[in-house]
Write a structure and sequence with these properties.
The complex is a heterodimer. Chain A is an all-beta fold. Chain A is built from no helices and eleven strands. In chain A, a hairpin with a 2-residue loop joins strand 9 and strand 10. Chain A is globular, with a radius of gyration of 13 Å. In chain B, strands 2, 5, 6, 10, 11 and 12 form a six-stranded mixed β-sheet that branches. Chain B has a four-stranded antiparallel β-sheet with strand order 3-9-8-7, with no helix packed on it. A two-stranded antiparallel sheet of chain B has the order 1-4. Classes of the chains: A mainly beta, B mainly beta. Chains A and B meet through strand 5, strand 9 and strand 10 of A and strand 5, strand 6, strand 10 and strand 11 of B.
Chain lengths: ~110, ~120
């Protein structure tokens, strides 16, 4: 009964390819996020969706496109992958008005070669 | 804009001893929450403890407690009776309202080693 599940856990791909990471939560949360953790372990928010509406869109290359088909799912599609995209990508979710932080997925380690 | 600073990239503690991890933050918001997350080698992000800014009382969760100094914008984590399983990267985080969502801003992390 994984609360926030991401697939795949590992992704190795060549430069220039297009790839997607999927995220699903079964907690009934209404807000979902994508964070990027770089090689120095720094975590930075990329996007946030609330009830399928994009509400946070940080400075991220437009090769990254999030999609939220419903409030339980938030996918991340990356076009024309570059070496610098190699990182761990975390999906997270939270409930508006419920201030107990986020619940995180286990992360997707993306390696671009 | 919010910032979170963790000035100790690495810390070590002897098993059964006590260690304190430092965190300072900056925000102009009056409504905010503070968190400590733990990331073990499995890379799962685990919530350790949370603190509401409007509460003066320091939060405590078993062996974990915080020292919240609101005027100084300081939020340190104390781990008592350290165990080998406490070895992990610890992140301090600040949550403020951003429209209809609470955006979580993280510090750069402190890698904690527990020595047997």
């Amino acid at each position: 009964d994984t609360a926030v599940s991401q697939t795949p856990k590992y992704l190795v791909t060549q430069m220039g390819n297009d790839k997607s990471i999927k995220c699903e939560q079964n907690l009934g949360h209404d807000t979902m996020y994508w964070y990027k953790q770089d090689s120095k372990k720094f975590l930075k928010i990329m996007f946030s969706y609330n009830n399928k509406e994009l509400i946070i869109n940080e400075t991220v290359p437009n090769r990254f496109s999030p999609k939220s088909p419903d409030k339980a799912h938030l996918n991340l599609h990356i076009n024309s992958l570059e070496l610098g995209d190699s990182a761990v990508y975390f999906c997270a979710s939270s409930l508006t008005g419920w201030n107990y932080g986020y619940t995180f997925g286990s992360g997707t380690r993306l390696t671009v070669v | 804009a919010q910032t979170v600073t963790q000035s100790q990239p690495e810390m070590s503690v002897q098993e059964a001893e006590t260690v304190t991890l430092s965190c300072t933050y900056d925000t102009s918001e009056s409504d905010y929450y503070l968190f400590w997350y733990k990331q073990p080698p499995s890379r799962q992000m685990i919530l350790v403890i949370r603190q509401e800014a409007y509460k003066q009382q320091n939060a405590t969760e078993n062996r974990f407690s915080v020292n919240f100094q609101k005027a100084a914008k300081s939020f340190s984590l104390k781990i008592s009776d350290s165990q080998l399983g406490d070895a992990a990267m610890y992140f301090c985080a600040l949550s403020v309202s951003s429209g209809s969502a609470r955006q979580l801003t993280f510090g750069s992390g402190t890698q904690l080693t527990v020595l047997p």
